[in-house]
């Protein structure tokens, strides 16, 4: 017994040491990027230690780098939800799920990674990949034909072997450093620019794409990273500069169909790059697709893929395209600035694509097709864009530019308060109706709440009549309420006053006002009597909406002429109404707030608005208002009703609406 126990005690350290050596050998092989050897060693180790979740994740990563997604999925599933897993393991698990055709299962992993690391755009881009999968599969439908390269015509190495001149240029460049990796060099057509991939410091993660240009002395200058629009925290490689300032490359960090996808970007005039566009299926699949080159005619070329239709491993594929490329540029119709994020719908393919932040989008479609594209964007009117390919297109001229102008959605509202002029307060239960130019109601009438507020939306380039009614009061109306001349959204402020109905003897046709109000100036000469209203508002069974209370309660306003600070003659009835209200409510203080349009300097407009406010304040004092009840405020051009800018000039009607003085009652 002692002998057996002694043997056991001596053998345990030997077994543990053997296990430790096996794991160390696996990790050492992985550190030297010998993943085939490493995965075999990990597999052997994990058959005896299936609950070593750290080793399971290391094995999954090995299969990930070997691009064996089925094996990688198996081992990620074992350990990715264990506490030892890191966020990157979840991202890689999502990527292999996507490669294995399980996008619905991959999406939560991408979204979780993006939520935890929002500055790493891989999670966001890969989540978009799953959401756009159907569109990418149909994007180039019928426009591109892909076939395996005939046997004996070439190998991936031959087809995509770096140009000897490009390779020599990279190896002899002054910045070449053996401490870093440099791959996939490609020269531009004029040999003045060299593109390559590298993991040199200063990149965005993994392999990044760089560009160097020849100096005047013929030497290569310092390399420039192509920036965050091209490079991601993943790997970018295989750059190929094509005609039209286009750059094709491979990436596993941008929106795609899975694993490595071919992307295409175009260079802007300032040297930066547009957001890459994925050409979709059949160029890209859920497998690795990379190394695309374009032939001299521009109607096809070659690329490499490990898709299952090949002979096995990485195979060369040939593609031909029977399509015309339209470089679409969407701009603001008035400001001539790009409209970003426009959704462009192709009714033929039933695919919606989204323009980049510069309002650019490349669209491929077959020659002879005429398509009505639908463009939509928040804050802009929808546009139906009819396009037919130019008749002059040839195999050599396959790219055209089209500019689409979109107009901002203009929403002009009319808003105001209905006042009960017996009490001098907002009128509740007043029926407000908006009539069109033909005298027809435009929709549901609005029944005011206790704040007397109403608000209606006006159609563009139309004129209306506003009408307010209330039992026992004379109907009041405001004509020429117009949205004409406005090129941006804003609010017209119009207040309506209801005066009481009097019977033939001069009595109020309404309930008696309070004794306190009976002594006020407007009601002093009115004899009061309870009678039935002679002209009651007809009962309307249609449900009416009641306006919600707003912060601008009790607001009156007047408008001013351009560069004018005198009291506007045409606005005297409003000022007289204000005097009347303040006489009825001696406890009120009025804030006189003046504004200007956006023309002129900020300093000048501030002085101008102050002159306007003071002029109106003087007028009110002359008409019996104590100056201590007035607060003079100048806002200049800081609070326009209609925004005006260098790229969005205002119309004269919009400038006129901005030139106003508002009266805010402080109780």
Radius of gyration: 37 Å
Number of strands: 31
State the secondary-structure class. Answer: alpha+beta
Oligomer: single chain
Task: Please state the overall shape, judged from the principal axes of the Cα atoms.
Answer: elongated
Discrete helix count:
14
Q: Which residue ranges are poorly predicted, with pLDDT under 50 across at least 5 consecutive positions?
A: 1-16, 511-554
Mean pLDDT: 81
Binned, the helix content reads 25-40%
Strand content: 25-35%
**Biggest sheet character:** 5 strands, mixed
Cα end-to-end separation: 101 Å
Description of the molecule:
With 667 residues, the protein is α+β, with helices and mostly antiparallel strands. Helix content is 25%, strand content 27%. Helix 5 (87-99) runs antiparallel to helix 6. The chain is elongated.
Short description:
With 667 residues, the protein is α+β, with helices and mostly antiparallel strands. A hairpin with a 4-residue loop joins strand 13 (343-346) and strand 14.
Secondary structure elements and pairings:
Elements: H1 2-31, H2 35-48, H3 53-65, H4 69-79, H5 87-99, H6 103-116, H7 121-131, H8 133-138, E1 144-148, H9 156-159, H10 164-171, E2 182-187, E3 193-198, E4 208-213, E5 224-225, E6 236-242, E7 246-251, E8 261-266, E9 289-294, E10 300-305, E11 315-321, E12 324-332, E13 343-346, E14 351-354, E15 360-365, E16 371-377, E17 380-387, E18 399-406, E19 412-420, E20 425-426, E21 431-435, E22 446-447, E23 453-458, E24 463-469, E25 476-482, E26 490-493, E27 496-498, H11 515-518, E28 556-559, H12 572-584, E29 589-595, H13 602-622, E30 630-636, H14 652-658, E31 660-666
Parallel strand pairs: 12-18, 19-26, 19-27, 29-30
Antiparallel strand pairs: 1-11, 2-3, 3-4, 4-5, 6-7, 7-8, 9-10, 10-11, 12-15, 13-14, 13-16, 16-17, 19-20, 19-23, 21-22, 21-24, 24-25, 28-31, 29-31
Helix pairs in contact: 1-2, 2-3, 3-4, 4-5, 5-6, 6-7
């Amino acid at each position: 017994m002692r002998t057996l126990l002694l043997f056991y005690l001596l053998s345990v350290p030997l077994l543990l040491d053997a296990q430790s050596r096996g794991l160390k050998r696996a990790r050492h092989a992985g550190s030297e990027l010998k993943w085939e050897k490493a995965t075999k060693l990990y597999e052997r180790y994990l058959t005896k230690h299936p609950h070593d979740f750290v080793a399971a994740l290391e094995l999954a990563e090995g299969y990930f780098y070997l691009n064996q997604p089925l094996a990688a999925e198996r081992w990620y599933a074992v350990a990715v939800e264990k506490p030892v897993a890191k966020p990157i393991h979840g991202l890689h698990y999502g990527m292999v799920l996507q490669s294995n055709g399980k996008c619905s299962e991959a999406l939560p992993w991408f979204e979780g990674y993006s939520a935890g690391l929002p500055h790493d755009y891989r999670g966001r881009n890969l989540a978009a990949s799953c959401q756009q999968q159907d569109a990418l599969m149909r994007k180039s439908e019928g426009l591109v034909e892909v076939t395996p390269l005939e046997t004996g015509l070439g190998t991936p190495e031959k087809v995509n072997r770096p140009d000897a001149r490009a390779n020599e240029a990279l190896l002899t460049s002054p910045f070449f450093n053996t401490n870093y990796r440099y791959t996939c060099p490609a020269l531009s057509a004029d040999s003045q620019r060299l593109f390559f991939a590298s993991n040199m410091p200063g990149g965005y993660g993994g392999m990044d794409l760089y560009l160097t240009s020849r100096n005047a002395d013929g030497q290569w200058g310092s390399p420039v990273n192509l920036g965050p629009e091209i490079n991601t925290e993943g790997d970018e490689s295989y750059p190929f500069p094509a005609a039209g300032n286009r750059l094709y490359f491979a990436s596993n960090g941008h929106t795609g169909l899975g694993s490595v996808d071919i992307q295409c970007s175009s260079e802007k005039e300032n040297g930066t790059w547009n957001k890459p566009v994925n050409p979709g299926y059949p160029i890209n699949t859920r497998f690795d697709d990379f190394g695309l080159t374009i032939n001299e005619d521009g109607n096809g070329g070659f690329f490499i893929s490990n898709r299952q239709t090949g002979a096995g491993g990485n195979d060369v594929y040939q593609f031909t395209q029977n399509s015309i490329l339209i470089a679409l540029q969407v701009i603001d119709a008035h400001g001539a600035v790009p409209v970003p994020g426009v959704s462009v719908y192709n009714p033929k393919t039933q695919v919606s694509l989204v323009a980049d932040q510069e309002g650019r989008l490349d669209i491929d479609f077959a020659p002879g097709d005429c398509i009505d594209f639908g463009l939509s964007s928040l804050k802009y009117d929808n546009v139906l864009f009819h396009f037919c390919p130019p008749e002059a297109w040839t195999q050599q001229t396959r790219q055209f530019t089209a500019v689409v102008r979109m107009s901002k959605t203009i929403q002009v509202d009319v808003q105001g308060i209905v006042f009960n002029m017996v009490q001098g307060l907002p009128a509740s239960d007043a029926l407000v109706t908006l009539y069109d130019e033909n005298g027809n109601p435009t929709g549901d009438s609005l029944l005011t709440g206790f704040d007397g507020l109403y608000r209606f939306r006006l159609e563009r380039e139309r004129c209306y009549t506003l009408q307010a009614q209330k039992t026992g009061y004379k109907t009041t109306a405001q004509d020429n309420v117009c949205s004409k001349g406005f090129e941006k959204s804003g609010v017209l402020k119009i207040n309506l006053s209801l005066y009481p109905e009097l019977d033939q003897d001069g009595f109020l046709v309404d309930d008696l006002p309070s004794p306190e109000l009976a002594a006020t100036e407007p009601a002093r000469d009115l004899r009061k009597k309870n009678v039935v209203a002679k002209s009651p508002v007809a009962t309307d069974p249609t449900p009416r909406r009641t306006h919600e209370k707003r912060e601008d309660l009790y607001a009156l306003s007047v408008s001013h002429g351009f560069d004018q600070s005198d009291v506007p003659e045409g606005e005297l009835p409003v000022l007289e109404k204000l005097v009347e209200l303040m006489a009825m409510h001696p406890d009120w203080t009025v804030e006189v707030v003046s504004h200007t349009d956006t023309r002129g300097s900020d300093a000048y407009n501030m002085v101008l608005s102050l002159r306007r406010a003071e002029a109106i304040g003087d007028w009110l004092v002359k008409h019996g208002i104590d100056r201590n009840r007035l607060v003079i405020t100048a806002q200049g051009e800081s609070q326009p009703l209609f925004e005006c800018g260098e790229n969005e000039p205002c119309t004269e009607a919009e400038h006129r609406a901005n030139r106003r003085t508002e009266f805010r009652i402080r109780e």
